[in-house]
Amino acid sequence: MNSIRVIIITFCIFYVKCDQNDDRFKRAVNRTYIGFEKENNTEWRKTFHFIQGADTQFGMIETFLQNKTDGGWDEEIQLTAQAINEWNAMTPKPKFVVICGDLVDDFPGKEPRRSRQITDFKKVFEKLDNDIPLVLL
Fold this sequence. Notes:
Layout: E1 8-14, E2 28-29, E3 32-33, E4 44-54, H1 60-65, H2 74-89, E5 97-100, H3 113-125, E6 134-136
Parallel strand pairs: 4-5, 5-6
Antiparallel strand pairs: 1-4, 2-3
Helix pairs in contact: 2-3
Protein name: Calcineurin-like phosphoesterase domain-containing protein
Keywords: Signal
InterPro entries: Metallo-depent_PP-like, STPP_CPPED1
């Protein structure tokens, strides 16, 4: 079966600090990201690492790889949770995690399945350490 590949990149970037009381899924506001505001990030401080993941696509494995009609997404949940556990255990912690690509498999309008995928996606990513900002692209 497919496995998750985690790529860790060491990179220099601006210092980032997020308010941990914010809803981590609602930090993108007015073409900026809470904690990544330009006025707070004008000097290079030090190098650090971050995580870039892609295509969590809850619902794809059973639907496309196993040819099931309206398959589930338990395997995607398990693989994502495994990756999050590894990221949380890292020392030092990554400065942020960015997830690109398809977060869930179903298109808008395919309800209630898409809403369940989004709910499960958020439930899994709530386990990401609050000290690690989450950026979804």
